[in-house]
């Protein structure tokens, strides 16, 4: 059987007396879209921070592609194949879309850059950036300053920047947040197109999107995973309905 790309085990983090992640275990298999849902304040963002390396757990382990990176900084996790998109936009508004993605590709290509001539290196970076833009459907917007893109296009650009890092797994933190209905439909299709090629861990409040996309859903309530399974199993789980979904999933 294939090994998980991300495996977390016994993860604990408390702020004072509040256990925000309480013995959380979760894995993401190659090509799988695993969604993490839960009510406001359940601990989803705190969990993502611990996986990304921006917050150190009190206990437990984070393995990426088999390597124990529990105490490693975000850069080491990126080298192991983890890329993250942010809830808060991380793009440079005055730079065009292609330039933003090329910068992300450059962060990954640091060493090879010294080996090639500058022009060749720039061309290679631009090639990678164009491929990532094409993968998110933004090829025709390459020369547009990122600040002038629509909100949904900015979300897609952030995903292109993550793809340019050559990841094995993408952490997607609310990619649909603040995006209108039509554009969120486009992001759903974009995520669907990435499934199978990348492992995806998606935190998202849009239940329609989650239930149409996910292979597996884990439900976090008060810092604990109360259920994990297929969308169908989660929809009909009495504990999940009582704690979170209520009539929403009917
Ligand atoms: N640095 C911190 N110090 C103290 N408490 C914190 C800190 N970060 C988060 N918390 C608390 O931890 C709990 C979980 O917060 P978290 O942001 O992880 O939840 P969430 O599931 O991502 O919520 P949302 O869906 O609203 O984004 C909340 O009660 C929050 O107030």
**The top level CATH class name of the largest domain:** Alpha Beta
N-to-C series of helices and strands: EEEHEEHEHHHHEHEHEEHH
Give the overall shape, derived from the CA principal axes.
globular
Poorly predicted spans: none
Tell me the radius of gyration.
18 Å
Overall helicity: 25-40%
Largest beta-sheet characterization = 6 strands, mixed
In CATH, the topology of the largest domain is named Rossmann fold
Distance between the termini: 34 Å
CATH architecture of the largest domain: 3-Layer(aba) Sandwich
Organism: Alsobacter soli
Domain ABC transporter: 6-247
Protein name: ABC transporter ATP-binding protein
Family: Belongs to the ABC transporter superfamily.
What does the model show?
- One of its GO terms (cellular component) is plasma membrane.
- There is one protein chain.
- Helix content is 40%, strand content 24%.
- It is α/β, with parallel strands linked by helices and 250 residues long.
- The protein folds into 2 domains: 1-81 and 168-250, 3-Layer(aba) Sandwich (Rossmann fold); 91-166, no CATH class.
- The strands form 2 sheets. It has a 6-stranded mixed sheet with strand order 6-7-8-3-9-10, with helices on both faces. Strands 2-1-4-5 form a 4-stranded antiparallel sheet, covered by helices on one side.
- α5 packs across α6 and α6 packs parallel to α7 (181-194).
- The relative contact order is 0.17.
- Adenosine-5'-triphosphate binds next to α1.
């Amino acid at each position: 059987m294939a090994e998980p790309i991300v495996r977390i085990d016994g993860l604990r983090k408390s702020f004072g007396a509040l256990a925000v992640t309480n013995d959380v275990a979760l894995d993401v298999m190659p090509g799988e879209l695993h969604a993490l849902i839960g009510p406001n304040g359940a601990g989803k963002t705190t969990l993502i921070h611990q996986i990304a390396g921006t917050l150190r757990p009190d206990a437990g382990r984070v393995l990426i592609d088999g390597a124990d990176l529990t105490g490693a900084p975000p850069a080491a996790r990126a080298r192991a194949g983890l890329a993250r998109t942010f809830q808060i936009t991380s793009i440079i508004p005055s730079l065009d879309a292609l330039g933003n993605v090329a910068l992300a590709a450059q962060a990954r290509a640091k060493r090879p850059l010294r080996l090639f001539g500058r022009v060749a290196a720039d061309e290679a970076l631009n090639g990678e950036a164009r491929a990532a833009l094409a993968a998110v459907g933004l090829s025709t917007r390459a020369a547009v300053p990122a600040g002038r893109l629509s909100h949904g296009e900015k979300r897609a650009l952030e995903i292109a920047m993550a793809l340019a890092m050559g990841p094995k797994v993408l952490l997607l933190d609310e990619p649909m947040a603040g995006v209108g209905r039509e554009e969120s439909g486009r992001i759903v299709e974009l995520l669907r197109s990435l499934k199978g090629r990348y492992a995806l861990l998606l935190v998202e409040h849009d239940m329609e999107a989650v239930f149409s996309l996910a292979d597996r859903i884990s439900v976090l309530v008060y810092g604990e995973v109360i259920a994990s399974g297929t969308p169908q199993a989660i929809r009909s789980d009495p504990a999940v309905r009582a704690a979170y979904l209520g009539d929403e999933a009917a």
